[in-house]
Amino acid sequence: MNHYGRKAQDRWAQHAPQRLAQIEDQQTFFTDLGEQIATQVSLLASQLESSRFGPLAMAGSSRENGRYLQEVSRRMTARRIAEEVVMDELVWMHDPSLSIDEAREEWEQTRPADSNLISWAERIQDAPDLAPTTVELEQKAKDWALPVWFLEGLMTAEIPGQYAKEHQSVLKEAASVRFLREVH
User: Fold this and answer.
1) Following CA atoms 157, 161, 163, 164 in sequence, which dihedral angle do they give, to the nearest 10 degrees?
2) Per residue in 28-58, pLDDT tens?
3) Which pTM was predicted?
4) Are 9 and 20 in contact (CB under 8 A)?
5) Nearest Cα residue to 124 out of 157, 78, 77, 83
6) Most buried residue, 45, 83, 97, 141, by CB count within 10 Å?
7) Contact by Cβ (8 Å): 2, 35
């Protein structure tokens, strides 16, 4: 078990001992969780390091510029940020004492409403200059776990609210994907 798995196990032992006791093979569970955290930390740290627009981005090679220590510092900072983000998502923020059904009920009460998407589409129809770029549309689709075609259809629908009702199954599936993203 890596150090992420141990941190998660310690958190559960402190905040949800009954739920921890229900896990038959704690070693495997927290080993797997620790590996999942490590993978996500590596991916996010890599994204932070390579982002051209991020505050941690650095033009050119650090060795070419003679800035080895700055490069090391930048990478360490990216890793620490990634660790905090991933641990917040997977360990610290979620109450491990909740069952999956209770967690879903709590999530449903606090998640952004689908009506926000309808309002977004109506604003674009009222002011076409607010239309998102392709990159922005793809990001919105990713954030909402919706296909791009759905958002394009919503923006061009005569009545966005009716379009959303006609595609309710897409919205429900997207909500389930977003929920699972947050609990896993």
Assistant:
1) 130
2) 988 988 888 888 888 888 877 775 434 444 4
3) 0.49
4) yes
5) 157
6) 45
7) yes
Residue among 153, 147, 152 nearest 171 (CA): 147
Beta carbons of 176 and 111 less than 8 angstroms apart? no
DSSP letter for each residue of 29-41: HHHHHHHHHHHHH
Domain ranges of the chain: 3-97, 110-183
Torsion from C-alpha of 91, 94, 95, 98, nearest 10 degrees: -110
Residue 134 has phi, psi (to 5 degrees) of -60, -45
Residue at token pair 């510029």? 65
Q: How many whole angstroms separate alpha carbon 16 and alpha carbon 9?
A: 10
Q: Which amino acid is at 103?
A: A
CA–CA distance, 6 with 61 (Å, rounded to integer): 36
Q: Contact 160/121 with Cβ under 8 angstroms?
A: yes
Q: What is the mean pLDDT of residues 159-180?
A: 90
